[in-house]
Amino acid sequence: MKRELDHLARFLQAAVDWKKKIRFNGTLLIEPKPQEPTKHQYDWDAATTLSFLQKYGLSGEFKLNIECNHATLSGHSCHHELETARINGLLGNIDANTGDPQIGWDTDQFLTDIGEATLIMLSVIRNGRTCTRRFNFDAKLRRESTDVTDMFIAHISGMDTLARGLRNAAKLIEDGTLDELIRKRYESFDSEIGSQIEKGKADFATLEKKAMEWGEPSVASGKQELAEMIFQSAL
Amino acid sequence: MKRELDHLARFLQAAVDWKKKIRFNGTLLIEPKPQEPTKHQYDWDAATTLSFLQKYGLSGEFKLNIECNHATLSGHSCHHELETARINGLLGNIDANTGDPQIGWDTDQFLTDIGEATLIMLSVIRNGRTCTRRFNFDAKLRRESTDVTDMFIAHISGMDTLARGLRNAAKLIEDGTLDELIRKRYESFDSEIGSQIEKGKADFATLEKKAMEWGEPSVASGKQELAEMIFQSAL
Amino acid sequence: MKRELDHLARFLQAAVDWKKKIRFNGTLLIEPKPQEPTKHQYDWDAATTLSFLQKYGLSGEFKLNIECNHATLSGHSCHHELETARINGLLGNIDANTGDPQIGWDTDQFLTDIGEATLIMLSVIRNGRTCTRRFNFDAKLRRESTDVTDMFIAHISGMDTLARGLRNAAKLIEDGTLDELIRKRYESFDSEIGSQIEKGKADFATLEKKAMEWGEPSVASGKQELAEMIFQSAL
Amino acid sequence: MKRELDHLARFLQAAVDWKKKIRFNGTLLIEPKPQEPTKHQYDWDAATTLSFLQKYGLSGEFKLNIECNHATLSGHSCHHELETARINGLLGNIDANTGDPQIGWDTDQFLTDIGEATLIMLSVIRNGRTCTRRFNFDAKLRRESTDVTDMFIAHISGMDTLARGLRNAAKLIEDGTLDELIRKRYESFDSEIGSQIEKGKADFATLEKKAMEWGEPSVASGKQELAEMIFQSAL
C-alpha cells in the first residue's frame, strides 16, 4: 500500500513538472472518489486526498473537483465535502452530478434537489471570486433515457436547480439570520478565556483554574431545529 | 427463527381476539423497523411485514404505521414504503419522523425536506378518505436541543413542512402532467395485446406469435428526467 | 407500482402455465436482488418475494435462488436470507457468489469466508434431501483477473470453501451443543403456559392472570457470546 | 467548521504541552470514529485524522487507536485502517472490538472472526517491536447478556480469536507465498524504468518515449483469487 501511494505521488509530481515545463497555467484537479473502481481508493474523500497531498508535499499544486455523488458514497454530505475542500483552500471545481442517497454506487444523475443545490451554492459564494470554481456536467443519461430530448431536459433541469440554489443561497446570506445564529453559537470564543484559547495562550493549568472558579457550565442549546427551519424557509 | 415468528403471530392473534372481546374499534398498527433493536427484525419493511401478515392470516387485522427514518434504514425511500403499504390496503398511519439518509440508525428528526413531504402527501391523498391516516410526531429532541423552545420549533417546522408538502402534492395532482406522463408510459397495456396480458388471456404461445410478427420493438424512453423536472418545479 | 406488480405476476403465471403445457418438471426459481438494476426491486429479498408470491397465489409454483451478495446488499446476512427461504419452504438453489460487505453493489466474487460457508451449509443440511438444493457459480472474474488460470483458481477456492463449510456444519450438528443451547433458550415454550401459547390457547386474560401470579420475570441471558464461541471453535 | 477544527487543534496542543510539563512519557492516542456522536466527525478515519494532525503540526505527538467497528462504519475494512495508520507511523494501539458489517452503528462486540483477526495480526507483526502496540477490550456486553459469565466468555472468545489470528499471521509470514506474490506484482518497479520512476527521475518525456518504443503493454493478472486462496488456506 505504501509503495502504491508513493507511485501515485511520483506520477502526480511528474504531471506538475510537465505542466511547468510546457508553461500550462490551468489548475490541476483531483476528483475524490470512494469505493469505485477499487474498494480502498486512495482519494476516498476530500480529507483523505488532503492527507495524501500534504504528506507528499503536493498541496500547493492541486485543487479538488468535488462530486456530490462521490460525497454520498463516502458517507458524507456534499456540503461537508465542499466545506472540507474550501477551508483548506482546495475547492477548485464542482461536478454537478448527484446520486441516490441509498444506492451504493455512482448513479451520475444531475442535481434536482433544491436543498442540496442551496448548500452547494453557499460554499461556492463563500469560496469567493479569486478561486477557480466552475461546474461541469457529465454528459451521460440513464439506460432508460433513450430520447435525444432527455439529454436536453436533464441539463436544463440541472442548470435550473443550480440557479434556484444560487438565489436561495444569496437570500440566506443577505438575510443574515443563519450567520448570526452561528456567530452566537461560537461567541464565547470571541472574548476572555475563549479568545485566549483561540490564541493558544490558555494552557490546562489556566483552564482548570477557570473551571473550578466557574463551576458546572450550563449546556447551551445548539438551536439546530431553528437553523433547519430558517434554511428550509428560504427554499 | 420459525418458532419466534410463530410466537409473534400467536401474540398478535391474541391481541386481535382481545380487541374483539372488549369491542375496541380502533385500528391495530404495526410499525415496520429494520436493524434496531435486533439486526434481523421480522418487521424489516412494509413488504416483509406484509409477507408475515399474509402467512399467518392476519392481513385483515393490522395496518402499518410507516416512519420515514425506518424506510431509509431498510434501504428504501419513504415514498416506496408508503406506496407498498397503500397498494396493499395497509397504509394506516404515518410517523412524521425522518433521519439522515447516510447515518445507519434512527435519528428521529422531524421532517424538513419539502421534496420528501410532497411525496408523502401524494401517497396520503391517493390513499383516500375512507382509510385511517394520521400523522404522529415522536416528542423527542436531539441531545443538544436543551431549550424548551427547541421542542416548539421542531414541531412548527415539521408541521409547516407537511403543510407545504400537501400544497405541492395537490398542485401536482390538479396539474395532471405527472399523472399523464405515467398514463402514457403504460398505455400499451390499455389496448390490444397489452389489455389481454392484464386480463391474463395472453399465454406464451400468443406472445411468441405477436413477437415474431412485430419484430424488434423500439425502446421507448422512460422520461425520468422530465418527470423529475415536473416534480421539482412544483416545490 | 401496483400495475407493474400485476404485470409481473401475469408474466410469471404465464410461465407457470407454459411449463405445465410443455410438461416441464423442473423447478422455477426467482433470485431476489435489491438495488440493481432499479432502486426499488420488487424482489428485494426473500421476504419481499414471499409477500409477492403469496399475494398473487404463486407461492406453490416458485422457489428461491439465494445469492449471498444480494443478501448483503439488501441489508441482511446470507444466513438470514437462506433461513427465511427455508422456513417458508422456498429454498430451491444457492448462487455461490459473495460480495464485499461494505461495497454497495454486486461484486460477484466466489465464497472464501469459512464462517459464511459454514452458516450456508447449516441451512442446506436442515433444508433436507427432498428439496431441490444445488449451487451454481456465475462464471465471471474480476476486471484484473486476466489469466485463464484465475478462473480455475476462483472455482477451486470457492468449492474448497464450501467443502470446509459442509464439514464444519456437519461437525456442529453432530456435536449438538449449539442446538442444545437453542433448545434451552426456548424451552419455556415446551411446557405449561408456553405450550398453551404455541397452541393458541392462551388469551390475554390467561396471560394477565399468570403474570400477576408470577410477578416480575428474571431476564435470562441470551448466551450469544457462548453461541458465537461454540460456532467459531468449529471453524 | 474551520473554527471548530482550530479549537480541537488548540485543545490537543494544550494536552501535548501539559504532558511535557508533567513529564508524562506515555503515548497520546486518538481513536478515529465516524458518524457517532456527530455525523461529520473530524476524526472520521485514519486518513482524515492524519490530514488533521499534519495540518496543525501535531503528527509527531499523537498515535492512533484503531477500532475495527469504527473502521467498518467509515466504509473501510479494519485491515485498511490499520495499514493506513502503520505506513504513516501512527499505529499506536488496537481496540479489540468489532461490529456487524451491515449495521450502521457501534455494536461493540469482541472479535470472533478468525480471518479479520489474522489480517489484524499481519499489521501488528509488520508494525514491529519498537512501536507501542497493545490491545484493549471495552468491557461492555450486549443488552441480552445478563449473566456474569457472559463477560468472561466474551473476553475468552475475543482473546482466543486474536491468538488464532496471531498464529495464522505468523504462518503466512513464515510461509512467504503471499509476500512473494506481492513482490512479483510490483517487481517492474525494482529495475530499469520502474526504479527510475520510484527515484523520481522519470519525467513525462522519458515515459512517453518508452511507451512509444514498447507499444501496448500486456495486462498482467492481479492474481487476487490466488492471494485469497492462500490466505484462506492458512486459517
Task: Tell me what the structure shows.
- Chains A, B, C, D: This is Xylose isomerase protein.
- Chains A, B, C, D: Its EC number is 5.3.1.5.
- Chains A, B, C, D: It is an enzyme of class 5 (isomerase).
- The structure is a homotetramer of 235-residue chains.
- Chain A has 235 residues and is an alpha/beta fold.
- Chain A has a single domain, classed as TIM Barrel (Alpha-Beta Barrel).
- Helix content of chain A is 53%, strand content 9%.
- Chain A is built from ten helices and six strands, in the order αβαβααβββαβααααα.
- The first copy, chain A, has helices at 2-21, 46-55, 68-73, 78-87, 114-127, 148-175, 177-185, 192-198, 204-214, 224-233, and strands at 28-30, 62-67, 91-95, 97-98, 109-110, 135-136.
- In chain A, the strands form two sheets. Chain A has a four-stranded parallel beta sheet. A two-stranded antiparallel ribbon of chain A has the order 4-5.
- In chain A, helix 2 links the parallel strand 1 (28-30) and strand 2.
- The longest helix of chain A has 28 residues, at 148-175.
- The model of chain A has no long low-confidence stretch (mean pLDDT 93).
- Chains B and D meet through loops of B and loops of D.
